[in-house]
Amino acid sequence: MIANLAQGVHAFTSNVYLVDGERTVVVDPGANFDAVAAVRERVDDIDAVILTHTHPDHVGNLEAVKDAFDVDAWGYDTSIDGVDHAIEDEETVQLGDHEYVALHTPGHKDDHLCFYSADAGVLFAGDLVFQNGSFGRTDLEEGDRGTLVESIDRVLEQIDPELAELHTGHGPSVTSEPYDHVELSSRMARQA
After folding, report:
1. pLDDT by residue (tens digit) across 116-159?
2. DSSP 3-state of 121
3. What dihedral angle (degrees, nearest 10) is formed by the CA atoms of 157, 177, 108, 103?
């Protein structure tokens, strides 16, 4: 089960995904709302926090969630405060009941990761791509449009055209032909 705990929250936050199962995790704890209470409404405990990247809107609640559930955070760069364990490019990580491959996808931020499970047909895209061809900002520090395009293309090469679910860092998840949305993001990022 994948639930967006930030759905309906009126604050500047990323989406916050609770992936329940054999290894229950929070993907990006978000910011500016009570993520701990939101998790506790659904489950008693979590096993880890997984980070797509460390922009403040994605990690503002990180310490609170780590402290409340006595868990560690996993991300790309352990030199960043709050990231306890490194996830290497192409490393396999368990989220819920499925294995996901971590893809290092810089361009929006240097430590950005996407997580893809071929078995589940699910892509957690962070701020790399969004619905309807939108894509991550590149005007922030560490942003680079050319690198972002390369990262989107890398994800396109990995994911199956029959992708079932695209879970993004902001906005709604895409469950109707999500592969097409990623493909459109690749084209739009080249034109902008």
Report:
1. 999 999 999 999 999 999 999 999 999 999 999 999 999 999 99
2. coil
3. -40
Query: In the predicted model, is pLDDT for residue 166 greater than 70?
Result: yes
Query: Cα Rg for the chain, rounded, in angstroms?
Result: 15
Instruction: Tell me the two tokens of residue 108.
Output: 């929006």
> What CA–CA distance (Å, rounded) separates 107 from 76?
14
Cα 23 versus chain centre, distance: 16
Instruction: State the sign of the Cα–Cα–Cα–Cα dihedral 145, 146, 147, 153.
Output: positive
Topology annotation, domain 2-191: Metallo-beta-lactamase; Chain A (3.60.15)
Q: Map residue 66 onto helix, strand or coil.
A: helix
* Order of strands across the sheet that contains 165-168: 92-95, 98-104, 113-117, 122-126, 165-168
The SS3 assignment for 186 reads helix
List the end-to-end C-alpha distance of the chain, in Å, as a whole number.
Answer: 36
Strand partners, 129: 135
pLDDT of residue 26: 98
Number of Cβ atoms within 10 Å of the Cβ of 96: 21
